[in-house]
Structure formats: structure tokens, C-alpha cells
Amino acid sequence: MNVTSVDGTSIFFEQRGDGPPVILIGGAFNDRTTVVGLAEVLAGDFTTIVYDRRGRGDSGDTSPYAVEREIEDIAALIAQVGGTASVFGHSSGAILALEAGAAGLGIDKLVAYEPPYTVADRTSSADDLVDRVRAAIEAGDRDEAVRLFLVEGADTPAELIDGMKADPVWGWFTALAHTLPYDLTIVGPGGRLPADRLARISTPALVIDGSESPSWFAATARAVTAAIPGARHETLAGQDHGVLQFPETLRGLLTDFLK
């Protein structure tokens, strides 16, 4: 199914289950297929909506990019399912969910899993990273765009990149390389936490980190929780940033909070 955003961009989505609507938002290198597992886990209790963010999968893309356009995409999906919905976001998708909450969309409840702001125990990415990634894409060098994002934006050790290039997943990464500037724009220069904007969120919010993730994710989750009035923080035992590969582990926490 498709919904049309304010700027005319067609956004493709799939709907499952029955119950209160929940929109699931993936982060970098994600399209709707990477959150389908979680959608199916939750579909027994909720109407789950997965979608291709603009520039991905079967959705369109309209220049120039702005975070506000992606917020409008979420607003169009919320309107499609009745005017209000809960949202779950992972990684940069979690930041997008938080930005949607700060913008005052009709969000019933908001869940953010490991939003990658930089607050402690982590070196901030350079403010010009998004420009250099965009330049690599414009030059046709998707490999370099992905390398820059992984090493400087996602803390991947540089010595691992050659091995990753030999893995089939590298083709998935490069196919979505043109959307990496979008995720970097969402995270913002240096990944600095926008406490003033987060303080505008009035919907009930849950911020989650995984116990096996690097310690800075927990520090960031706590900082985000502190910035949002009345927000709740939980650490998911045994999980890390790859939690979408193990969606069943999220069932209890999300069901209890979203119902």
C-alpha cells in the first residue's frame, strides 16, 4: 500500500495484525524488510505498520532532503491509520521517532531503542561527515560512502572493512548508500543531544538500550530519558544494537509499555 506525503512523495507501507496501531521505524541500512520480524512478533496485539523510508525500497524520494520531510512521512502514515499511533524507532530511526514526538505528531506512545547521540565515552563524529559521505556518493563511490559512515559514524574498526567488503551484506550496504546522508542529518552534527527539543516531547516515552552494547549506548539512553519529561528507561538483557535480528526479545517490554 502507498500513502502520499505532503511534498508528493509516495511512501510504501505494509500493515499486519489487529489492535492499536504501532509504526516501526528502521535506521541506517534498513528498509521495511528489516523490521518485519518485529512487526510479526507484535501483530498478535497491535496493528503494525512497516514502511520504506523515502529513498528506500518501494518508496519515492524528492529533493532536497530535510528531516522535516521524513516527519511529514510519519504524519501521513499516522493519518492513514486513524489519526494517532504509537511509534518504535531503532538507532537513527529512534532519533527520527523522537523528532516526530518533539514536532507534536499524534503519537500515543514512543519507544526509542539506542538512539545514537554522543554524550559520553565516545568520540564525536566530525561535523563535516555528512558532506564527505554525500560527496563520495555524488562521485559514484558508494564503497567509500559506506566506509566513511561505518568507520566515522558507527565506530566500526577500520581494519574490519576489507573483510566486510567480501561479505554479501556489503552489497546491501552500498545499495542503500545514497540514504546515509539522511541518517547523518537526522543524528545531527557530531551527534549532539538536542535536549531542548527532547524536552518538548509530551507523549509517554520508553528509551531502551541493550546490556551487551558498548557502554556509551547506556549513557546516551539515560541522557535521553532524563531530557524527556516523565520518560522511562530500560536495559534489555542479552541484547545489543542488532536487536532487530532477535525481535522476540522485545515482545514483553514493548507489549507491556504500548498497551
Automatic annotation (TrEMBL):
<dbReference type="GO" id="GO:0046503">
    <property type="term" value="P:glycerolipid catabolic process"/>
</dbReference>
<feature type="domain" description="AB hydrolase-1">
    <location>
        <begin position="24"/>
        <end position="248"/>
    </location>
</feature>
<dbReference type="InterPro" id="IPR000073">
    <property type="entry name" value="AB_hydrolase_1"/>
</dbReference>
<keyword id="KW-0378">Hydrolase</keyword>
<dbReference type="Pfam" id="PF12697">
    <property type="entry name" value="Abhydrolase_6"/>
</dbReference>
<protein>
    <submittedName>
        <fullName>Alpha/beta hydrolase</fullName>
    </submittedName>
</protein>
<dbReference type="InterPro" id="IPR050471">
    <property type="entry name" value="AB_hydrolase"/>
</dbReference>
<dbReference type="InterPro" id="IPR029058">
    <property type="entry name" value="AB_hydrolase_fold"/>
</dbReference>
<dbReference type="GO" id="GO:0004806">
    <property type="term" value="F:triacylglycerol lipase activity"/>
</dbReference>
